[in-house]
Amino acid sequence: MLKVKNINQYYGGGSHILRDVSLEAHLGKVTVLLGRNGVGKTTLLKSLMGLVPIKTGSIEFNGKAIHKDTPYERARAGIGFVPQGREIFARLTVEENLRMGLAYKSASTPIPAELFGLFPVLKQMLHRRGGDLSGGQQQQLAIARALAAKPRLLILDEPTEGIQPSIIKDIGRVIRMLADRGDMAILLVEQYYDFAEELADDYMVMERGEFIARGLGKNMPADGVRQLVAI
Ligand SMILES: Nc1ncnc2c1ncn2[C@@H]1O[C@H](COP(=O)(O)OP(=O)(O)OP(=O)(O)O)[C@@H](O)[C@H]1O
Ligand SMILES: [Mg+2]
């Protein structure tokens, strides 16, 4: 589904942020990327989305090279992105935020009703402004906005950051359920180890822009991943 080969990425000043990063994400699976602060996780996701250009390497999605496509084209090809810090539109209503997730569809495309089954709170809050929601509700809104266009690949950047435990549980359940339906690949960046271990079918650990460990999610305890990402 997603095949990333040997990506290298530099920021201005020449610092080497991603070093020969390769990964795959598959339908029906949750692929988790762990790593401490500042190691390059978000930079990798932005590269996949086309928000920062890659210097070398390739990104293949559904058998097609997409690394020269714009973010808009990648979204249209079926990649949904939930950015770190949520980035919902604070002054737009919940409904308007969800419509923004359909921005590249025709104007008559309805908001899929199933989103309200996944996140019932969004139905209750449909006409409230995004900025009036709690952090956890905003995260649910950001995920629902990404799901509105029915992506085949859902990319999430630290969805548990600053969120209360009960909503973290809800979000974990939704991610598992989406993967188990078998028609979506999920790439999850996460620093909350227990959440990552619970969801991971496959895992990678990044340090200073490269992967230092990877394997099956069920082997995370035996592989000592908790220690690798402990602060
Ligand atoms: N736009 C930018 N220009 C220059 N350097 C940047 C830019 N964005 C990030 N960096 C640097 O690149 C490195 C990787 O940052 P990145 O945000 O990808 O890390 P991260 O693993 O997502 O961290 P966190 O866990 O804190 O979200 C850091 O050293 C950061 O300071
Ligand atoms: Mg980050």
Protein described:
The structure is a single chain. Helices cover 32% and strands 26% of the residues. It has a 6-stranded mixed β-sheet, sandwiched between helices. A 4-stranded antiparallel β-sheet has the order 2-1-4-5, with helices on one face. Strand 7, helix 7 (165-180) and strand 8 form a beta-alpha-beta unit. The model has no long low-confidence stretch (mean pLDDT 95). With 231 residues, it is of the alpha/beta class. The two termini are 33 Å apart. The protein has one domain (2-87, 153-229): P-loop containing nucleotide triphosphate hydrolases (Rossmann fold), CATH 3.40.50.300.
Total of DSSP H or I helical runs spanning 4+ residues: 9
Overall number of strands: 10
CATH topology: Rossmann fold
Percent helix: 25-40%
Query: What compounds are bound to the protein?
Result: adenosine-5'-triphosphate, magnesium ion
Going across the biggest sheet, name each strand in turn. Answer: 6-7-8-3-9-10
What is the total number of structural domains?
1
Described by strand count, sense and barrel closure, the largest sheet is: 6 strands, mixed
Q: Architecture, CATH level 2? A: 3-Layer(aba) Sandwich
> On the 0-100 scale, what is the average pLDDT?
95
Radius of gyration: 17 Å
Low-pLDDT regions: none
SSE succession: EEEHEEHEHHHHEHEHEEH
Shape: globular
Kindly, what is the distance between the CA atoms of the first and last residues, rounded to a whole number of angstroms? 33 Å
Q: Can you tell me the CATH class?
A: Alpha Beta
Class derived from helix and strand content? alpha/beta
Which band does the percent of strand residues land in? 25-35%
By CATH, the superfamily comes out as P-loop containing nucleotide triphosphate hydrolases
